[in-house]
Design brief:
The protein is an alpha+beta fold. It has one domain: L-fuculose-1-phosphate Aldolase (3-Layer(aba) Sandwich), CATH 3.40.225.10. Helices cover about 45% and strands about 10% of the residues. It is built from 9 helices and 7 strands. It has a 7-stranded mixed beta sheet with strand order 3-2-1-4-7-6-5, with helices on both faces. Strand 1 and strand 2 form a beta hairpin. The two termini are about 30 Å apart. The structure holds manganese (II) ion.
Length: about 270
């Protein structure tokens, strides 16, 4: 495995731990990243609570959400959410689907979720998808490719979509941008609900959303937030190990030395 791919897969696990540690993901929900050298593939954990995932649990799927290589792993039934969004949106490289309790009141009431302070401007316009419109009564899960494609159409050119009585799906051009948007999307939802108890709440203006989101998706902002959330993951003792379980002894030894070196470099960067 090339080092840059190994680094990306490690980052996928770190993003997942951050989102679990920030109470976005619980036993359910998932995060994926597009293959950096093959736009027709993506990586996602096998079926399990996302916080438990390690790099060895990742599977490589095509955009029909089928494994590229035979696997014994059970897969997430809702993985089509990811594959269908990657098909519809070549600019999207990372996707998170979650059932955060912060956004659920909006999914239940149909109240419009809008950016109510500067950092969540990155959620932009948030469409609302009702699975019943095309599919009638279902078990509420997005399991058929056509259901995933319908959700991707509802997302359109936006970055976050609410799903009636279910949760939300968020997209990003990178894992760090996705993590930023997902965390602040949930914080915005919690604050909008709280502010609505005080009275009328409206959105940032379209101009403010454009200017503020353009500022926030720049690496200085997404990296600063990422480093803070990584520190919280470290404090919670949830940081994944970089050593690969399935490698040969020699490769593992070499990569362990490299990981130690890179962790040292990262610590310098993070402090
Ligand atoms: Mn779901």
């Amino acid at each position: 495995m090339a080092d840059d791919l190994a680094e990306l897969l490690h980052e996928l696990i770190v993003a997942t731990r951050i989102l679990a540690n920030q109470n976005v993901l619980d036993a359910f929900g998932h995060v994926s990243v597009r293959h950096p050298r093959d736009a027709q593939r993506y990586f996602i954990s096998r079926h399990q609570a996302p916080e438990l995932a390690e790099v060895a649990d990742l599977v490589e799927l095509n955009l029909d959400s089928e494994p590229v290589r035979p696997t014994e792993f059970r897969l997430y039934s809702e993985r089509v959410i990811h594959g269908e969004i990657y098909k519809a949106r070549p600019d999207v490289n990372a996707v998170c689907h979650h059932h955060s309790h912060a956004v659920l009141p909006f999914c239940i009431s149909g109240q419009q979720l809008v950016p109510v302070f500067h950092l969540p401007a990155v959620i932009g316009q948030v469409p609302f998808w009702d699975q019943r419109d095309e599919f009638g009564d279902t078990n509420m899960l997005v399991v058929k490719p056509e259901e995933g494609a319908s959700l991707a159409r509802a997302l359109g050119a936006n970055w976050m979509v609410l799903m009636r009585r279910h949760g939300a799906t968020v997209a990003g051009t990178s894992l760090r941008e996705l993590t930023f948007r997902t965390v602040f999307g949930c914080e915005n939802a919690a604050l909008q609900s709280a502010a609505m108890a005080h009275g009328h709440v409206d959105s940032l203006s379209p101009g403010e959303i454009e200017l503020s989101s353009t500022h926030s998706v720049r690496p200085p902002s997404t990296n600063r937030a990422w480093d803070y959330w990584v520190r919280r993951v470290e404090k919670a003792r949830l940081m994944p190990s970089k050593v690969q379980a399935k490698r040969s002894a020699t490769t593992a030894k070499r990569s362990k030395a490299k990981a130690a070196k890179s962790t040292k470099a990262k610590r310098r960067h993070w402090s």
